[in-house]
Design goal:
single chain, Maf protein, alpha/beta, RdgB/HAM1, about 40% helix
Length: about 200
Amino acid sequence: MKLQFATQNEGKLAEAKRVLSRFGIDVIGLPVDLWEPSSGEIQTVTMEKLRQIRRMGYDRVMVDDAGIFFAAYDHFPGVLTKRVFDRIGYRGVRKLLEGEDRTAWFEGCIAVSWDGRTGLFSARTSGRILDPIPDDIRPEAGLPFNPIFIPDGETRVLAAMTPEEQMKHSYRSRALEQMAEWLLNQQREGFHLFSR
């Protein structure tokens, strides 16, 4: 089974390939530029991306959106995660969280279009932001919060873990697994309809 992933983020694409290969799903990158709303929930943004990619004529395609949320702020940065980090970097995050609750969580959502049907899958990873954030820290390509996010039950940041350890804490991995099960069900149902 082949599935296109509309993303320009190589880190997300690599994780999707790794997770979905276990289900016999071959992920093919589709590097298109999609407009992202600057307000609303992660699920709303994900569905907007799916509408755009469908209007371009694609089916059997997935999109995703994700963000980090700080408990100290209401629904922030959320859907603005990439824009906020691009503008303020670690220095700004350090200032935002100075003297504040460091509790944080990643939330991600995947939407898929398969033969005209739509599936939507969400997951979350809870943890906290490193305190203090070192001055010399460098972002991980496409995943800038991995070097400062410590998942619940751990003492190390995500960036310090092996890929296998990271997968245990990956909200995206859990959402991808949910999607894979849905896709396999769609395929089975299609086969039964066709074979009647």
